[in-house]
Amino acid sequence: MNNFLLLPIIIPFFFGMILMFGQKKLAYQRITTLLGLLMAIIGALGLVYKVHADGPQTVTFGSWPAPFGITMVSDMVSALLVTTTLILAFFIVWYGFESIGKERERFFYYPGVMFIITGVNGAFTTGDIFNLFVFFEVLLMASYLLIVLGGEKAQLRESIKYILVNVISSAFFVITVAFLYSVVGTLSMADIALKITEINQPGIITVIAVLFLMVFGMKAAIFPLYFWLPSAYSAPPIPVLALFGALLTKVGVYAIMRTYTLFFTHDLAFTHELLLILSVITIIAGCIGALAHFDVKQIIIYNIVIAVGVILFGVAQMNEVALQGAMFYLVHDMIIKAALFMLIGIVIYISGTTNLRKMGGLMKTYPALGWFYLIAALGLAGVPPLSGFVGKLLIVQGGFQADNIWSSIFILASSLVVLLSVMRIFIYAFWGEQGQISNDVNKTTYNRLFFPTMILVFISILYGVGTEWITTLMGDAAKILVDPSIYTDAVMKGGE
Amino acid sequence: MKTNDVILQFTAKLVFFIIFFYAVHIFFAGHYTPGGGFVGGLVTASAIVLLVIAFDIKTVQSIIPINYLSLVAVGLIIAGGTAAFSMFMNEPFFTHYFDYFYLPLIGKTSLHTAALFDLGVYLVVVGVTMTIIQTIGEDE
Amino acid sequence: MEIIMAFVCGFLFMAAIYLILSRSLLRIIIGTGLLSHGAHLLILTMGSFKGSAPPVLSDGVTDYVDPIPQALILTAIVISFGVTAFFLVLAYRAYQELQTDDMTLMKGSEDHE
Predict the structure, then answer these.
(1) Dihedral over Cα of A56, A308, C80, C53: its sign
(2) Tell me, what's the pLDDT at A494?
(3) Of the residues A26, A304, B13, B23, which has the maximum number of CB atoms within 10 A of its CB?
(4) Which chain A residues contact residue B87 at CB under 8 A?
């Protein structure tokens, strides 16, 4: 029993509620949001330290015994993701001061951000499959608010589709949980893992595994189910887009990672093979999209899809090296996607357009922006020693260990396409003749936008260069994913 | 066209209180039997909606001058605060406490912190429902 | 009993899919409502119909139904209530702003090349 692990969920929740008062006082809203996130970050860092020292932490709500109550479990996987989420939210909120617009700030933007963080952190932490659904809904409700905020025509049009897709996927989630409950008779994820091996009904469990893949795949945007993502994400303003792109799909990826390592391990030849094939096709689809578009937003959005494929490829290998790589890449991708969205947000602010063909020559006037974009782009593609390198290396190494030679080589080749797609932005926007420049570029606004972005890029460089320090943490996370008994033991015995 | 809705308005005033007290009854009945904050909140909201139908939003707003969004926030704070209270007692989150008390007039009563949580839910439901109805109804 | 429920759920899903595939926004919202009702009914069915008394604490009751599916349904109903309500407000705003509730007129984006 340890309530400490709830801090990263509860602090944003309470601050969200406090922020619902005093909508018109901007200074109060901004300072309170940053203060809340800072407190939560401190709590999360403490949590990482605690989990590293003492192993997974659990708390079961309402003093119920372990498999019956709702258990919250914080192992290294969730502790790292929670910390990354909060740090990113901090920088995105900071960045949003200048770019989100006062209209939105006065209309529940900050409570929305806080509730979305609550939902994301809750989904990362929960150890109960139905509670996962509840936290998904919390973050979705907040995301519905954020995606329509401002009420522009494009936003209204896209948010309707976004909500419809998510409502249907939520209904599927409920149906799948119902099936699972009727088969195993429990909702606690640790207990499910134990019961599934006991009841020995591989057929029906495989069906449920595929249904879960569908449900979470809809959120994570894997191959046949990513259709909604590009248009829905193009509508909201940049800070909201950065928040969504960095966090929301990753929650789906995390859910697949968790369920496919913890309980659907009875028929690896089918379920994980399916995951592998889908992840490869996801990468292909993402690559095509990223190369085809001339809209900067769309290029980065399709890169989200590619990254999802790469991470799930690591999950599909089911060995420790690949899972460690997947964890590395997951955290890396969250950081670098947020940084990239913030960078192209500045590019869009300066040039006043999202169309690459109209941009050009920004290197002369904004050299710092250009260099930081280059670093972020190289990091995304995984050029050593930047942050994407270690994750991809381990994933490919794991792929070779699992005898998936060709698909691993394919992952390596896809890095080149990723590099090409982001370099295209660099070439078009920063090199060449002077392109379109927005008339009302304010130097202070630019600096205020650039400062948080710069720090985030520095963090991503640190993450890449300082891999040595994080390796032990990532190793802990991978161990838990490979060996579910650590997780189940922590939950079942944690209540004592 | 001006409609004559004297009967509707008069009955609505009476029926509002009947529905409202029924909602309070359901709210407290939820302690041991079916009922509770969610249903109670919906019934209360329907009582207010009846007033909105009989009069109009502006009149109802002057009768019940509540900012429903603040109501949602207050409800969330009460519900979340009840759940978080046990954290300060070094018990798991959401642990509830109850005991029996002898109150004047009522006699032996069990008081349970779950009722406080339910009160929060009640306020949230009333707030959310009324916010939605106001948003849709406002520009007619 | 299970077989009847299976048919009822199936019918609800069928109606929901029919409505969701239509063009009018309001019908789509009603469709999502039916979809979640079907899902809730399915949870109830999946929890099996054993037991006769409600799972409420009282003396001498031993043969009570499984309370977990009911708790799940209550949660799911609250959530679908919230989402449907939000969806309705959004649809209304979209109707005001875009002057249409026809989904076929809402596809694509303006700055598409």
Answers:
(1) negative
(2) 62
(3) A304
(4) 3, 6, 10
CA distance B110 to B117: 15
- Contact between A365 and A376 under an 8 Å Cβ cutoff? The reply is no
User: Cα separation of A308 and A302, whole Å?
Assistant: 10
Q: What percent of chain A has pLDDT over 70?
A: 99
Instruction: Give the torsion sign (CA, A351, A92, A414, A372).
Output: positive
**Chain B residues within an 8 Å CB radius of C89:** 132, 135-136
Q: Which two tokens stand for residue B39?
A: 């249903």
Average pLDDT, chain B: 85
Residue B71 has pLDDT above 70, yes or no: yes
Please answer yes or no on whether C89 and B135 come within 8 Å at the CB atom. Answer: yes
3-class DSSP assignment, residue B5: coil
Q: Find the mean pLDDT for residues A243-266.
A: 91
Residues forming beta bridges with residue C24, ordered by sequence position: C102
Residue A148 with chain C: CB contacts under 8 Å: 90, 93
Burial of A21 (0-12, 13-18, 19+ CB in 10 A): middle
For A178, nearest residue in chain C (alpha carbons): C43
Give B51 to chain A, closest Cα distance, Å. 27
Confidence bin at C49 (pLDDT 50/70/90): confident
Percent of chain C with pLDDT over 70: 92
Q: Is C88 helix (H, G, I), strand (E, B) or coil?
A: helix
DSSP A4: G
Contact B26/B36 with Cβ under 8 angstroms?
yes
- Please state, in angstroms and rounded to a whole number, the distance separating the CA atoms of residues A337 and A334: 5
Residue of A nearest to B69 (CA): A20
In this model, does residue A92 exceed pLDDT 80? yes
Write down the residue that tokens 């299970």 correspond to. C2
The dihedral built from the CA positions of residue A483, A484, A487 and A489, taken in this order, carries a sign that is: negative
Q: Provide the pLDDT confidence category of residue C113 given band limits of 50, 70 and 90.
A: very low
Angle (CA) A68-A70-A73 rounded to 5° is 115
Predicted pLDDT at A496? 45
Angle at A72 between CA A67 and CA A75, to 5 degrees: 110
**Stronger pLDDT, B103 or A26, i.e. the higher one:** A26
pLDDT level of residue C109 (50, 70, 90 thresholds): low
C53: three-class secondary structure by DSSP: strand
pLDDT band at C110 (very low <50, low <70, confident <90, very high): low
Please answer yes or no on whether A134 and C72 come within 8 Å at the CB atom.
no
Q: CA C38, CA C60: separation in Å to the nearest integer?
A: 34
**CATH architecture of the domain covering C2-49+65-99:** Orthogonal Bundle (1.10)
CB A169 within 8 A of CB A219: yes
ipTM confidence score: 0.92
- Provide the pLDDT for residue B2: 62
* More confident site: A3 or B116: B116
- A114 by Cβ neighbours in 10 Å (0-12 / 13-18 / 19+) ranks as buried
Which of A156, A164, A234 lies nearest to residue C93, judging by beta carbons? A156
Specify the pLDDT at position A385: 83
CA angle A463, A307, A301 (to 5 degrees): 105
Residue contact A153–C90, C-beta within 8 A: no
The CB density around residue A485, as the number of other CB atoms within 10 Å, is 11
- DSSP assignment of A114-148, as one string? HHHHHHHHHHHHB-BHHHHHHHHHHHHHHHHHHHH
CB neighbour list of residue A424: distance below 8 Å, 6 or more residues apart: A291, A299, A356
